[in-house]
Amino acid sequence: MRKQKNVIWILIGVVLIALIVKSQYPKLFLATGYGAKAMATAVFISGRDPQVVQSYDLNYSLVKYTTNKIDFKNKSVTTSFWGMAKQTAVYREGLGCTLINDSPIDSLVKFSFAIPRLKRPGIWRIPWPNGELKKDTVFPEIDTLKLKSAVDRAFGSPDVDKRWTAAVVVLYKGELIAEKYSQELGITTDTRIWGWSMSKSIINAMAGVLTSRRKLDVNAMAPVSQWLNDRRRDITINDLMHMTSGLKWDEEYGEISSVTSMLYRSANCYGSAIDVPYQNKPGTSWKYSSGTSNILSGIMRTLIANDQIYHEFPYTEIFNRIGISTMILETDAAGYFVGSSYSNASARDWARFGLLYYNDGVWKGDTILPKGWVNYTRTPAIDSKGEYGAQFWLNNSKILPDVPADLYFCDGHRGQRIFIIPSRNLVVVRLGFSEKGFDHNQFLKEILGSIK
Fold this sequence. Notes:
Blueprint: H1 2-44, H2 50-57, E1 67-71, E2 76-81, E3 84-92, E4 96-99, H3 105-109, H4 144-153, E5 165-172, E6 175-181, E7 193-194, H5 199-212, H6 237-241, H7 258-264, H8 269-274, H9 290-304, H10 307-319, E8 328-329, E9 343-345, H11 347-358, E10 362-363, E11 366-367, H12 373-377, E12 393-394, E13 408-412, E14 416-421, E15 426-432, H13 440-449
Antiparallel strand pairs: 1-2, 2-3, 3-4, 5-6, 5-15, 7-9, 8-9, 10-11, 12-13, 13-14, 14-15
Helix pairs in contact: 1-2, 1-7, 4-13, 5-9, 5-10
């Protein structure tokens, strides 16, 4: 009798487990998609140790329970959750890593792109910011011991306080005055580190250049043919820039949502984003939306109307002109830049990007962004409580209470930040693999406190 009861309880347990797995199975693709994409990028773009990547980059939510199989010969990563919900990401030269989803892997692998890079011989002998030589500039108003202490505290111990800071770079009046990299995490001055949603600010820069070329008008209706026959036709490019499109977007990463379906289950991020239905009148309410950044990326591809020029565009028109040599923008399987999420560069190059905005879009006399563009970028979106501009975050409402209100910043998943504080002549970069235990307000407060 007792054996029969045990068998019954075992059967009940098996049934319950099966029901749980069935209900949660779709979510497993989010974990394996994240894992495959992040591991592939870290290994094939950043050249990092897979074991370190697994311990830090992927020590996150359900992703920590995934298993990765790395094919170094074919440059791909297949990730599974206990053998289930397998997803594969493949590396393509110049285009980065992409999840193959429903795309035949052979059709993806054959595509590659030669990134147009400026040759910079002897860059370690050329002074910052055009080169990598750190000048011996002395600013008497800076307390160097306080500054060093502030930077050191941003790191802590990776295995104790879980801050997992990868790199910090501090610029003052455009000069490189402090930097540090995590030896424990294998990070150097050349290591490309993910930007995640800081990519949205690159979309801002691309839009600015197209505006200066008179190919884009922020006040024009968004040229999306699929919207012409419904209420979405009233959405302007400005609505997309400020995330006030009125689209029924769901930015929930723990569920099957608009953003997770776009990033981890779709081969075409632009197509996935423009399929989102109308919710309310454009330009009346703010809602954070990664989809709008990818819609802008797709619109720019349409306006440029030449895939070769589209893929070269951020390199020839922005990065090469400001000395950025490590940046890689990754595309989806359909060839669209994933402007919401996928960019990688060294900490110094992320600092250069921030310096471009600090200098009001001008680089050594070369006008990259049109006059007034940075002010446009810092104009608060309606209904955002002064917290968001055009693909940049703002501190108008003092989200960071001990930092000046003129701060604006690029903000990415797991604690990626480029802080620009014009009133204090500062650009500060913090990159990492976690925000746990990291206080951005205190970090900036200490750096500000080192400058009299």
